[in-house]
Amino acid sequence: MIVFMKTKPLLIYRRILHHIVGALVFIMLLTLIGSVVGLVFDIIGGINAVREGLPTHTLSHGLIDSVARNLVIDVLSVFVLIELFRTFTDYLEFHRIRLRVLAEVGIAFILREIFIGLYNHSIGWPEILALTALLAVLVGARITSVMFQPAYSETSSSQGSTAGPPL
Fold first, then answer.
1. Domain boundaries, the chain
2. 155 pLDDT band (50/70/90 cuts)?
3. Which one has a higher pLDDT value, 152 or 19?
4. Of 76, 118, 133, 143, which cross-links 112 as Cys (Cβ 3.0–4.6 Å)?
5. Burial (CB count within 10 angstroms: exposed 0-12, middle 13-18, buried 19+), residue 39
């Protein structure tokens, strides 16, 4: 009787958690679609701005530079969203967040920040040094997580997981 009282709340908790994560995946999917649509609108706006043309070279260069800057930021943001989306789907599949996937999200985010800072010429050497150190730690964590994957027992494969250990 005591075992039943402990397992029933856990089952309810798991169901609620599963529905919450499912809702978050749906929200992330909508966000990803919105980002891609925004990226397409930025490209169309850039094409229209170039097609209209501007009278002087410096104005058109500034216009193209600002449009290109927005496109670079949007593309890099879409990559970060894809990695976050993969984290949620990974949680739904394995019921845990793996260090490898989390490190990849951090790596994508740090690279995005470095690229944007360098492209905007708004990042100094101390920030680059700090971000590079953080990037090295995340890459080390990812390499370590791949080298030392947990062993998979027969109980995890008998619960419906037909695939081998995740890479």
1. 1-96, 98-147
2. very low
3. 19
4. 76
5. middle
